[in-house]
Amino acid sequence: MTASRSNCPSCGASLGSDTDVCPSCGSATALTQTFERVHAHPDFERWMHHVPLGDPRPARGTGTLAAVVVLVILGAFGVLFSLFLCPPMAFLPFAVAAIGLYLVLDQGRKEGRLRRLPVERRPARVLDDGARILDTSDGSQRHEHRIDLELEGSGRRTLEASPELAGSLRAGDLGVAYLKEDRLIEFARLVHGGSPAD
Questions:
Q1: Is residue 57 included in any domain, yes or no?
Q2: Which range marks the domain in which residue 189 is found?
Q3: Are residues 30 and 87 in the same domain?
Q4: Could you tell me where the beta strands, DSSP code E, fall in the chain?
Q5: pLDDT value at residue 26
Q6: How far is CA 40 from the centre of its chain?
């Protein structure tokens, strides 16, 4: 990714997009001034201690999980049915049920791990928001909701978000981002794209 260039507000020197201090004159850049606006907001400390309720969207892969549970149930009935009609063929539905059970347990393990992760709270600026349509290996399409944020101290990151959260944010919004790994689970907007939030 190529860093976009900007100029220092004090001396006009060329800067990278992640530069906090101008290398020529030492003054704070627009990026630093942006995060100073977040820190100066009267509700900033309250939102830095806020405990989000959790990821507002269903667990990742909920549709797939439901399909796998159905697969396990059908496999179990298939085993019972095959035992009566053709006992040597009972291993096929048994294998299907075993694979389905493994997938259910693995999905639960992944979601449990994500729930146990601590919430990271970071001042942030929304750079881009929206849904992206991805082609899958089976030829279908799936919607993925991602938000590009500029996080104080670590630069730009692209994060997964719920459709509701992705739809509520606009480029330029400033506030506190609540993160768990690569997911944005909540965003406390303190400034609407350049003007203080109500």
A1: no
A2: 44-52+119-196
A3: no
A4: 5-7, 14-16, 120-135, 141-151, 155-160, 174-180, 183-192, 195-196
A5: 56
A6: 26
| Distance set, CA 38 to CA 33, 54, 138 (Å) | 9, 23, 44
- Enumerate the β-bridge partners of residue 126: 149
Cβ atoms of 197 and 190 within 8 Å: the answer is yes
Residues with Cβ within 8 Å of 139's Cβ and at least 6 positions away in sequence, in order, are none
Is there a domain that residue 111 lies in? yes
Tell me how many domains the chain contains. Answer: 3
Residues 133 and 163 in one domain: yes
Mind listing the pLDDT tens digit for each residue in 79-89?
777 777 777 77
Tell me the pLDDT tens digit for each residue of 143-171. 678 888 888 888 888 888 888 888 888 88
* pTM for this entry: 0.59
Q: 89: phi > 0 → left, psi -120 to 50 → alpha, else beta; which?
A: alpha
Partners of 155 in the β-ladder: 151
- Over residues 106-115, the pLDDT tens digits come to 877 877 777 7
Contact partners, residue 40, CB within 8 Å, separation at least 6: none
